[in-house]
TrEMBL record:
Subcellular location(s) per record: Mitochondrion membrane
Keyword Transferase on entry: no
Keywords (A to Z) from UniProt: Amino-acid transport, Membrane, Mitochondrion, Transmembrane, Transmembrane helix, Transport
Superkingdom assignment: Eukaryota
A GO CC term assigned to this protein in UniProt: mitochondrial inner membrane
Membrane-spanning parts: 164-184, 253-274, 286-310
GO BP: amino acid transport; mitochondrial transmembrane transport
Coiled coil: none
Origin species: Vicugna pacos (Alpaca)
Protein known as: Sidoreflexin
Family statement: Belongs to the sideroflexin family.
Membrane topology classification: Multi-pass membrane protein
Length: 340
């Protein structure tokens, strides 16, 4: 009788799973294939879903418990693949992958767009005074530094001194570059007003790109010295690799250049065209809401595209790593968490 009941339960669970279009659930694995850019794009669109910001503590506990039940083979009959994928999505959006601690809402990946858009609008405000430029550059780098820290690869501890060093380096880099270019533009008397306005706005691109890279390198420099954990196919740590850390930082540096470039180029080109329309010239008060919508659209487009350039768990051949790591595993490849 017990065997019959068990068989019936398994059959019911299988039928429930078969009734959905969701792929078979794999604990800790992405729902969409990470070998293609399109698969990573769908994966990160899931991760940046802002609806996860409103998940209650009770719903989070239920999601974590459901995954624990699956892990230990205690899953109740009737649980579908879709429910399991949804539970994993909630957990990964709220809890850090390495520490399993809750990430503060403004610094979650799903919170980057709603909390980042007001900052981008402030950065793109025309005719800013020096104090305003400094404030928005400082606020942007402060937000980025906190996002970097909250979503870092935490397999190696980051001293507070390193965080402060990275934060100050990014702020100084952004402000010095942004203010320096602002002063140069003011002294360029031969520029037409339109050209001057475009240069003033696009000056943010080198300022933000250099600051993002400076922030990334200084805050995660410890990874270059100590290495980051690399895992075999079974999820077992086979060592800490400095070579893998260099690969992770190179991938992140490229992403941190592509992201502001995509946002600024798209939004500023469209904004400069709209400013010439009769509607905005007759109603200049509409400029700020239009600019806000442009920043929102550009960020919604640029963020998933930029972070989809590389998979979250990047793969590297063991032959490219340190000899002691290559000897510690029989796997041809290992993976590492590149961070965000």
């Amino acid at each position: 009788m017990a065997d019959t009941a068990t068989t019936a339960s398994v059959a019911a669970a299988g039928a429930a799973n078969a009734s959905t279009d969701a792929p078979s659930f794999q604990l800790g694995k992405p729902r969409f294939q990470q070998t293609s850019f399109y698969g990573r794009l769908r994966h990160y669109l899931d991760i940046i879903d802002p609806r996860t910001l409103f998940v209650t503590e009770r719903r989070l506990r239920e999601a974590v418990q459901l995954l624990e039940d699956y892990k230990h083979g205690n899953l109740q009959p009737g649980v579908t693949n879709e429910q399991l994928w949804s539970a994993q999505k909630i957990k990964q959006a709220i809890l850090h992958q390495d520490t399993n601690e809750k990430i503060f809402i403004p610094f979650r990946t799903s919170g980057y767009i709603p909390f980042g858009v007001p900052i981008m609008v402030g950065l793109l405000l025309p005719h800013q005074k020096l104090a305003s430029t400094v404030f928005w550059l400082w606020l942007n780098q402060s937000h980025n530094a906190c996002v970097n820290y909250a979503n870092r690869n935490a397999t190696q501890p980051l001293p507070v001194s390193k965080f402060i060093q990275g934060y100050l380096g990014a702020v100084i880099s952004a402000i010095s570059t942004g203010v320096g270019l602002k002063v140069l533009v003011k002294k360029a008397n031969k520029l037409t007003p339109t050209t001057r306005l475009l240069v003033q706005r696009f000056k943010l691109l080198p300022a933000l790109a250099s600051a993002n890279i400076c922030n990334l390198v200084l805050m995660r420099y410890g990874e270059l010295e100590e290495g980051i954990d690399v895992l075999d196919g079974d999820g077992n740590c086979v060592g800490s690799s400095r070579i893998a850390a260099r690969h992770a930082l190179l991938e992140m540096a490229l992403m941190r250049v592509v992201l502001p470039m995509s946002i600024l180029v798209v939004s500023l080109i469209i904004l400069s065209m709209l400013e010439k329309t009769a509607l905005l010239q007759a109603r200049p008060r509409l400029l700020l809401p239009v600019q806000s919508l442009l920043c929102l659209a550009a960020l919604c487009l640029a963020l998933p595209l930029a972070i989809s350039l590389f998979p979250q768990m990047s793969e590297i051949e063991t032959s490219q790593l340190e000899p002691e790591i290559a000897r510690a595993t029989s796997s041809r490849t290992v993976v590492y968490n590149k961070g965000l």
